[in-house]
Amino acid sequence: MRFTLPARYRALNGGPFRVVRFTLPARYRALPKSYAPFSPFSDGGVLIHSGQFHACLRIPCAGTDALPITIAAPGKTIGVEGRRVADQTRFVSRDDGTNIFVGNLMPEEADGFVAIIDPGLPTAARDHLRQSLPRAMNAFARIYGALSFRPELYVSMDARPRKDGHASTQGGTLPGQIFMHFDGANARERVTAQAPFWLDWFFAHEAAHLFQQDRVGKLAGDETAAWIHEGGADAMAALVLTQRGKEERGYVASRVRSAETACATGLVSAPLDRATANGNFDLQYQCGMLIWLALDESLRAEKSDGLHAVNKTLFARVKAGAPWDENAFTAAARGSGAPQPLLQRVARLVHGGYRDPHEDVAALRKAALATVLREQAN
């Protein structure tokens, strides 16, 4: 949905465009590396991602130019930037944009956040998520301190079958917001089709992003080194869940083993710093989680706070102006006591230099499982 009108396009009179209008149906479309422009609710409400409508006056276009937006929705409530107003409002969307809620659902006051939850969500799932997100936020607050803001949670569902048969579950974070959307046929059944651990993982991962952005003062990272913030958030989620019980530790261990297979297989084609360009963005999560958990194990063996110590140093560096990149990560890890052989292993997997990645990835998996077992012993 992010677009630029090239200079060759002109109005019918031959002059440049002064106003361009589009009529777009509020349908959900899953995007591999970005958030959908619309996430419909089952009662007719909708969540709109403003960042997908940023335009540019000239190319090349980063799509982050500030965009004044007017929302007119007679008879609806509009929620944006922490405000709730009736019928119409205006604001300026900046950077990656924000989510705008348009509908009649009232926000629910929850433990540490404000939620707008689709009434079509099964009761068991609604009750579980009310507990899951606060548990993750409280766990991270004990380590990093309380958030400086009260986040918003949006959970939406559109269970109408799609003509193409597609069904998906996607979620993410924007500044001060967590959102999740269940789309397509059997959406309600998919919410409760398996143990709730995957929902716990999702909320712990997104809560980790909230603490990342709060401590650095902005959204973290870029797509070429997304293994730092996406893999880091997965590793933070893994540590939160391992502290809850035996079944959760088993779930974490299964995700670690799955990540090993996916990471090693994916790196056969190209190193991690080329994964996004090759259309394999999931490697940023899978390989990144193994890297961070292996780092955690190496530091905890020396009675350190593990990856949390690295995070605190990294967050401080980025907040002081350093880029959120591999150099900042390596400096934070080395300063926290990470062993040089591990950092060399990480560099090989990120940039290449290996003949077969399976040996290096297997070593990361072994260390990652060891840190999970260490949490069990504690």
Task: Give the SSE map.
Elements: E1 3-4, E2 38-40, E3 46-49, E4 55-56, E5 67-80, E6 83-93, E7 99-103, E8 108-109, E9 114-117, H1 123-144, E10 152-158, E11 168-174, E12 177-183, H2 187-191, H3 197-216, H4 226-242, H5 246-269, H6 282-300, H7 307-319, H8 326-335, H9 340-351, H10 358-377
Parallel strand pairs: 1-4, 9-10, 10-12
Antiparallel strand pairs: 2-3, 3-7, 5-6, 5-7, 8-9, 11-12
Helix pairs in contact: 1-3, 3-4, 4-5, 4-6, 5-6, 5-10, 6-10, 7-8
Using only CA atoms, what is the Rg? 22 Å
Cα(first) to Cα(last) distance is 48 Å
Q: What general form does the structure show?
A: globular
How many extended strands?
A: 12
Order of neighbouring strands in the sheet with most strands: 2-3-7-5-6
Number of helices: 10
Mean pLDDT: 86
Largest sheet: 5 strands, antiparallel
What is the string of SSEs from the N terminus onward?
A: EEEEEEEEEHEEEHHHHHHHHH
Kindly name the structural category: alpha/beta
Strand content: 15-25%
The percent of residues in helical segments reads 40-55%
Uncertain spans? 1-7
Describe the structure in your own words.
The protein is of the alpha/beta class and 378 residues long. 43% of the residues lie in helices and 18% in strands. It is built from ten helices and twelve strands. The protein has helices spanning 123-144, 187-191, 197-216, 226-242, 246-269, 282-300, 307-319, 326-335, 340-351, 358-377; strands at 3-4, 38-40, 46-49, 55-56, 67-80, 83-93, 99-103, 108-109, 114-117, 152-158, 168-174, 177-183. The strands form three sheets. Strands 2-3-7-5-6 form a five-stranded antiparallel β-sheet, with no helix packed on it. A five-stranded mixed β-sheet has the order 8-9-10-12-11. A two-stranded parallel sheet has the order 1-4. Mean pLDDT is 86; it is low at 1-7.
